[in-house]
Structures are given as structure tokens and as C-alpha cells.
Amino acid sequence: MSIEFLIRIIGMFVFAVSGAILGVRLSILAGGAAELWGMVLAMVGALLGLVISPYLTTRPVRAIRRRMIQVSAQTMGAGLAGLIAGLIIAALVSAPISLLPSPFGQLAPFLTAVFMAYLGATIFVMRENDIINLLRSRFQSDPNEAGTSSQSGRSILMDTSVIIDGRIADIARTGFVQGPMLVPAFVLIELQHIADSADPLRRRRGRRGLDILNRLQKDNTIPLRITDLDVEGVREVDDKLVILAKQLRSPILTNDYNLNKVAELQGVTVLNINELANAVKAVYLPGETMEVQVIQEGKEPGQGVGYLDDGTMVVVEDGKGNIDTTIPVTVTKVLQTAAGRMIFAKSGID
């Protein structure tokens, strides 16, 4: 028997009794039969209690619980501190306010306490980062050490896609990743499901991801930790990652475009591997020369297409006759698109 069903039964009984009592009292005013009025209103109350009882009890509790799950412990602590500070200030000013003429002397202290509690909690939550940094700087012996620990101690949540991608292993070895990498257990479970898939392509991708994790664990450059932290009431892995990132105040490392946008909309910092790859690609200006291997024909007549080592597409004018040949080319135009960077060049072979 579920709790919601039990609440419906209790609500039906309570509303039925209340309806019967109300029916008897209305029958006295209306001058009708008390039994009939009581029976009708008891049935109406029972039906009403059966329908609306969960909306008065379990549904609000679940909504509050889901909301509290999304709030980080740091935010809750800041709100609690602000609430206490507001109540202390309200207690200090309540004594002179209570001397006001009636009824202001009775109402003003209560309203002041409510207002100061709300104001204190709001201000502390809005400035929680400043307060945490101030406390850290006070309790650290060296301010420079405090700043360094706050930056390097921030854990980075890893998404399934970025683990399967594999480039994070090389990036971590270079030392560009500051802070321990954190892999939630639900991400590891999803990776295991992919590795056990009946689809050969998905199975290879999943096993590659497990190999990358094994490689990262053996590398001592950046610590990798598997955590059992989970988010109750949420089934999607991406939603769990976003909520967990908000709770831990950690960025998400991913190359998933949709997860990137959803996380940014909710104020979560995102470290996108694809954006990093585009940012570190070599910059070529019109007029510069390079060598590229033409591997296929282009869309336009006479064009050839080649690729640089970083995957940048190079469209070579009059390069169709040099397929499978490495030739010198001169850059004529560089085009940045959503899919990446494209370079248009002219063949240097007459």
C-alpha cells in the first residue's frame, strides 16, 4: 500500500466526517432533515477528500523535496546563516518597536522579524561566494595559499560522452586540468550499459570509455575519483549531472552540445572539449602558404579537398588533378562555421 493511497483514505474519512457535521448544522439553519443533509455532504466530502488529499499533503512535500535536492549545501548554509542574522537583528529592534501604541506595538515586532529573516537569508544567498571566500581567507595562514587551494581544489564532473571521446586523457597529462576529476557512479553505470550493448559500435564505444577511465586512474597527473553521490527522483543522467554540479559548485566536462546548453541555462560552468579543440587550432591568414594532401574531389568543378592534422578542412581551388598528392597551397580565405573552421586555398602548382 502506497503512502499516497493511505493519505487518500484518511483524507476521505476526515472530509466525510467534516461534511456530515457541516450538513447537520446547515440542516438546522435550513430547517431540513438532518440525516439527509449529513449524508449528502458526507458523500461530497468523501469524494472531495479522495481527490484533493494528495495535493494538500504528499504533492507539496515532494515538490519541496525536489527543490531542496537542487539546492547546494553551500547555498543552504548561507541561507541559514542569513536567517539567524536577520532574527538576531529583529530581536534587538523588537524592544523599542513594542513600545508603539496598540495595535502597532503587537504587530510590528512580528512583521519586523519576518521581514528581517527574509532579508537576511536573501542577502546571504546572493553573496554566498563572497562570504565563503572571506571565511577561507580568514582561516588560511597564507592568503595566496587560500586562493590557490580554492582554484585547484574544485572538482570537475565528467560526462559519459567526454570519457568515450578519449581526448581528456591527453589533456589531463598536459596539466591544463586544474582540480580532481569526479566520475559519478551513475555515469559509470551508463558507460557499463553502453559497453554491454548488442550494437557492435556502441559496445566498442563503451569499452573505449572504460579503457580511458582505467588509463586515467593509472596516470598520477590528475587524481580521478569515482563517487557514489546520486540525485534522488531524477532518472536522466544529464539532469543528474546538472543538479549535482549545482550542489557541488563544480563545472561539467563534456562535449555534448545539448548538455552544454542546458547546463549554461541553469548557471552551471561547462568545460567543452570541442570548444577547446577549436580554440587551439592553428590560425592561418590569407596569403600564408602550407602543404596539404588532397584526398578527394570538392563540390565545385576542379576543387580538391584535404585535411590538416587537427581535422581542419582545406578546400583547394584547381586541386582536383592532385588527388593523393601533397602540394603547396596559398590561403585565400578562412571561414569559421558552427561545425568548425574551413580554409579555402589556391594550389601553388602551376
In short:
With 350 residues, the chain is α/β, with parallel strands linked by helices.
Commentary on this structure:
The chain is elongated, with a radius of gyration of 33 Å. It has four domains: 3-56, no CATH class; 73-152, no CATH class; 163-279, 5'-nuclease (Rossmann fold, 3-Layer(aba) Sandwich); 289-347, OB fold (Dihydrolipoamide Acetyltransferase, E2P) (Beta Barrel). The chain has helices at residues 3-30, 34-56, 58-70, 73-97, 104-126, 128-139, 143-152, 160-165, 167-174, 185-195, 200-218, 237-248, 257-265, 273-279; strands at 156-158, 181-184, 224-227, 252-254, 270-272, 289-297, 304-307, 313-317, 325-337, 340-347. It has a five-stranded parallel sheet with strand order 3-2-1-4-5, with helices on both faces. It has a five-stranded mixed barrel with strand order 6-7-8-10-9. It is built from 14 helices and ten strands. Helix 1 (3-30) runs antiparallel to helix 2 (34-56), helix 6 crosses helix 7 and helix 10 crosses helix 11 (200-218). Mean pLDDT is 83; it is low at 143-152. With 350 residues, the protein is of the alpha/beta class.
